[in-house]
Design goal:
Strand content: 5-15%
Number of strands: 2
Radius of gyration: 45 Å
Number of helices: 4
Shape: rod-shaped
Largest sheet: 2 strands, antiparallel
Structural class: mainly alpha
């Protein structure tokens, strides 16, 4: 219905006898309900964008992308703990590259003369091999 004239129906018709007309007119309570409903709908719409967490029970294996976040087994003469990884899975390494750093669990296992003693063992083995080679050569001549 167009609102062309400035005359109002309320002013010309008595509302006491027309119950259906009274029912169509907005009341303060219905405006209040409309505001409450609008507020609830806006609140629900905003809640759609809030973060939420869902828990699911399942069975399987968990794999971490970085090697320092997953359990590793490294075979070593002395037990130790991996301190730092210098490579990641999929990296190319060459001979002599440092892969990881291992720290010893107990300080009493640490041998400060490990390199000189290892060099002595290598020297002893090489002398043993040389002497064995000379003996074989001497036996062949005679």
């Amino acid at each position: 219905m167009l609102n062309i004239s400035s005359n109002s129906i309320k002013d010309t018709i008595p509302f006491s006898g027309a119950k259906s007309l009274v029912m169509t007119l907005p009341r303060k309570e219905s405006q209040k309900r409309l505001r409450i409903l609008t507020g609830v709908l806006i609140t629900l719409f905003i809640m759609l964008f809030l973060p939420w967490t869902q828990n699911i029970r399942s069975k399987g294996y968990v794999t971490a992308l970085r090697p320092d976040q997953r359990p590793q087994t490294v075979h070593s003469i002395i037990a130790g703990r991996i301190e730092k990884w210098y490579v990641a899975e999929g990296d190319y390494v060459a001979a002599g590259d440092t892969i990881l750093r291992i720290s010893e669990v107990k300080d009493e296992y640490f041998d400060s003369l490990l390199l000189p003693r290892t060099q002595q063992q290598v020297d002893a083995k090489s002398q043993s091999a040389r002497s064995y080679g000379t003996r074989c050569w001497l036996f062949k001549i005679r």
